Amino acid sequence: MAESDAAPTISKKCGPYISSVTSHGINLVIRGLVLFFIAVIGLLYPCMDRHLGEPHKFKREWSSVMRCVAVFVGINHASAKVDFANNIQLSLTLAALSIGLWWTFDRSRSGFGLGIGIAFLATLVSQLLVYNGVYQYTSPDFLYVRSWLPCIFFAGGITVGNIGRQLAMYECKVIAEKSHQD
Description:
Blueprint: E1 19-21, H1 24-52, H2 62-81, H3 87-105, H4 109-131, E2 135-137, H5 149-181
Antiparallel strand pairs: 1-2
Helix pairs in contact: 1-4, 1-5, 2-3, 2-5, 3-5, 4-5
């Protein structure tokens, strides 16, 4: 039997937008770090609001936060499931949806700035993980980066920030009620 007649190797097929982790132990460490930084981002938004002296007063109720989470899940789902003609169209659509999420649920300068900063830093960290061989993109499209990734990070930052602001508002309300009872 010739070498060319050997049984074909079955390659592991992944979608064009899925990245894989090379080690299970590293996967667990990365997940733990991501959860930690999500909590830090949630705490950072109300702290920045207090530091800048701009209290966030736009749509401050849990139903608005849950709608924001639903829109973020929709944006994330669209990035994975909707077929676009090319990656530029996908990136521009997700950028418009992400900015629309910010406009609908946040509208603060600090929220926009933190969202941009989070998107930049998270994209940089994910790129460093790819460069060091921890992650492998199945098909990078722009400078070895998935071009839509910053849009997802921006929308995620806005969503987690809204959750953090709502939790901080609840904490302030409980402290105020306790001081009134005394």
